[in-house]
Specification:
By secondary structure, the protein is an alpha/beta fold. Helices cover about 30% and strands about 25% of the residues. Strands 1, 2, 3, 4, 5, 6 and 17 form a seven-stranded mixed beta sheet that branches. A five-stranded parallel beta sheet has the order 8-15-9-10-11. It has a five-stranded antiparallel beta sheet with strand order 18-19-22-21-20, sandwiched between helices.
Length: about 475
C-alpha cells in the first residue's frame, strides 16, 4: 500500500473538485485530487451541454412547424434523421468534454490519484486498495447521481437516466418520462418535438422547480397542451415485455390506459454521492439525508478541517453554484485555519424548456414561510400572452411574478415561465444581488419593443400594490403600442 502525506486532499475531479484543487494550490503545492471515474464534469458529459444540444435540435424543428403562423409554408414533410441528431449531440458533447480534459491534463500527474476514496478517520483516506493518504485538510466534492426507486432496476436496459440518453445512436419511437422536473421537462419536450412519442408522469403535482402555485399551474397547462403530462399520475403496472415496457395508468379521463415505451427515462431527482465514502468512520455531523452539514458561507463542516462543495453539499445542484462553492472550500482548505466567508451570489436557476422557466432570489415558498400570509409582501404580475415583442415573435406564452417587501419596497425574488426567461432572470438576479428596491429597478432604462418591457409591467404592478408608486396605467405612452 502506497503512503502519501499531503496538506489538502480533494475527493472528486468534477466541476467542484477541479475548482477546489486550483483554489487550494494557491496556498500550498501539497494538494492531491482523487477521482474514481472519468474526468470531464457532469455538466459537459451528461448535463448542461449535451441537453442543450438536444434542445437546439428540437427548437429547429419547432420553428419550422410554427412558420405557417407567419404565412410561411414549408413544402413537404419535415424529415428528422435521428442518427444525425444524435451524432451532432455526441460530437459537440465530446468537444466540450475535451476542453475540460485539456485543463485536467495541465495538472501535474503526481497530484492526480485514480480510484475511489473512503474515509478511514477524520484525517485518513484510502483509495481503492493501492494508496493511503494522510491529509491535514480534506474537501469532499464527490458530486451526485440519478436517484429512482430500486424496483425499477427490474426493467434492465429499458430503464435509462440522462447519462444513458446521450449515448444513443438513434432516436427511439417512444419514451415514458418519470419526473417533470428540470431534467424531465428539458429532455421530454425535446424528444417529443423530435418525433418521439412521449408521455410524462409525476407525483404530487410538482412541475419544474416552481413553488408559486399560479405560475406552476400555468406551466402545467402549457406543457400538457403540447404533450401528455400527468404530474400526479396513478400507475397500476409497469412491466418489461421483451424489448419494451408496458405501463398501465389512469389517464386524465379516469380510464385505465396502457402505454408501450421503448425506454423509461428516470428523471426523478439526484442524490449526493456521499453514501459510499466511509462517513461512518468520521465524526462529521450529517443532515437527514446523510450529507455532512456545512456553513453556507465557508463550506466548513462540523469537523473544522473538512469542507464540502458542489452537488455533494446538497445545497443548489447547479454548475455556477458548484464553481462558487469550490472556490470557497478550496480557498479555506488551502489557507486553514484562516477561515473566511466567501461570496454567495443571489440564487438564479433556469429550465431550458419552451417557454423557459426561471427563478431568482427567494422563492414564493421561502418568502411565504419567512413572512407568512399577513400581507408583508406583495406580488406583481404580467402575462406574456399579449406582451408586444412576445406576440410579434409568436412566442407569447408565459407569466412572471415578482415579489417585493412591504414597507421597504425591496425586491425579494421572482418566478416565471416565458420567452427568453433565461435573460430576464439575469437582469432580476443582478437587481436582487444589489438589494435594489422596486422603484430603483423602475428607474433603469427599458427599450421598446423588447420582452424586458414585461418585467417593467410586473414591477409597476407590484409598486402600486406596495403603495409606493402610482396606480397601473393600462395603456401608458412610454411603453409604446402592444405592451
Amino acid at each position: 500500500m502506497k503512503q502519501r502525506n499531503v496538506d489538502v486532499a480533494v475527493i472528486g475531479g468534477g466541476t467542484a473538485g477541479l475548482g477546489a484543487y486550483r483554489a487550494a494550490k494557491a496556498y500550498t503545492d501539497s494538494v492531491v485530487m482523487i477521482e474514481g471515474g472519468p474526468y470531464g464534469t457532469t455538466c459537459a458529459r451528461v448535463g448542461c451541454m449535451p441537453s442543450k444540444l438536444l434542445i437546439a435540435a428540437a427548437e429547429s424543428v419547432h420553428q419550422i412547424e410554427k412558420a405557417p403562423g407567419f404565412g410561411i409554408h414549408p413544402q413537404g414533410e419535415i424529415l428528422i434523421n435521428g442518427r444525425e441528431v444524435m451524432d451532432r449531440v455526441k460530437r459537440e458533447r465530446d468537444r466540450f468534454v475535451g476542453f475540460v480534459l485539456e485543463g485536467v491534463d495541465e495538472i501535474a500527474a503526481e497530484d492526480k490519484i485514480q480510484g475511489y476514496a473512503k474515509f478511514i478517520d477524520d484525517h485518513t483516506l484510502q483509495v481503492d486498495d493501492h494508496t493511503t493518504i494522510q491529509a491535514k485538510r480534506i474537501v469532499i466534492a464527490t458530486g451526485s447521481r440519478p436517484a429512482y426507486p430500486g424496483v425499477w432496476n427490474e426493467l434492465g436496459d429499458r430503464l435509462i437516466v440522462n447519462d444513458d440518453l446521450f449515448e444513443w445512436d438513434d432516436l427511439p419511437q417512444s419514451v415514458a418520462v418519470f419526473g417533470p422536473g428540470v431534467i424531465g421537462l428539458e429532455l421530454g419536450q425535446s424528444l417529443h418535438r423530435l418525433g418521439v412519442d412521449v408521455k410524462m408522469f409525476g407525483l404530487g403535482g410538482q412541475v419544474g422547480p416552481l413553488t408559486d402555485p399560479q405560475v406552476m399551474a400555468y406551466a402545467r397547462d402549457t406543457f400538457a397542451s403540447e404533450f401528455y403530462l400527468d404530474a400526479d399520475v396513478k400507475v397500476e403496472r409497469m412491466e418489461r415485455k421483451g424489448d419494451v415496457v408496458e405501463i398501465d395508468f389512469i389517464n386524465h379521463d379516469g380510464v385505465l390506459e396502457t402505454f408501450t415505451a421503448e425506454y423509461v427515462l428516470a428523471a426523478t431527482g439526484r442524490r449526493p454521492n456521499v453514501d459510499n465514502i466511509g462517513l461512518e468512520h468520521t465524526s462529521l455531523a450529517l443532515d437527514a439525508r446523510g450529507v455532512p452539514t456545512a456553513d453556507q458561507y465557508t463550506l466548513q463542516t462540523s469537523v473544522p478541517h473538512i469542507f464540502i462543495a458542489g452537488d455533494a453539499s446538497n445545497q443548489i445542484p447547479l454548475l455556477h453554484e458548484a464553481a462558487d462553492q469550490a472556490r470557497i472550500a478550496g480557498d479555506n482548505a488551502g489557507r486553514f485555519p484562516d477561515i473566511r466567508a466567501g461570496l454567495r451570489r443571489s440564487a438564479i436557476s433556469a429550465v431550458f424548456s419552451d417557454p423557459q422557466i426561471a427563478m431568482v432570489g427567494e422563492t414564493y415558498q421561502q418568502i411565504s414561510q419567512r413572512l407568512g400570509t399577513c400581507g408583508c409582501f406583495a406580488i406583481g404580475e404580467v402575462s406574456f400572452e399579449n406582451q408586444g415583442r412576445s406576440r410579434v415573435m409568436l412566442r407569447n406564452k408565459g407569466m412572471l411574478h415578482v415579489y417585493a417587501e412591504q414597507g421597504t419596497g425591496r425586491f425579494l425574488g421572482a418566478e416565471m415561465m416565458g420567452p427568453n426567461a433565461e435573460h430576464l432572470a439575469h437582469l432580476l438576479a443582478w437587481a436582487h444581488q444589489n438589494q435594489m428596491t422596486i422603484s430603483q429597478m423602475l428607474d433603469m432604462p427599458f427599450y421598446h419593443p423588447v420582452i424586458e418591457e414585461g418585467v417593467r409591467t410586473a414591477l409597476r404592478d407590484v409598486n402600486a400594490k406596495l403603495n409606493l408608486g402610482p396606480e397601473m396605467i393600462k395603456h401608458c405612452l412610454d411603453c409604446g403600442p402592444g405592451c
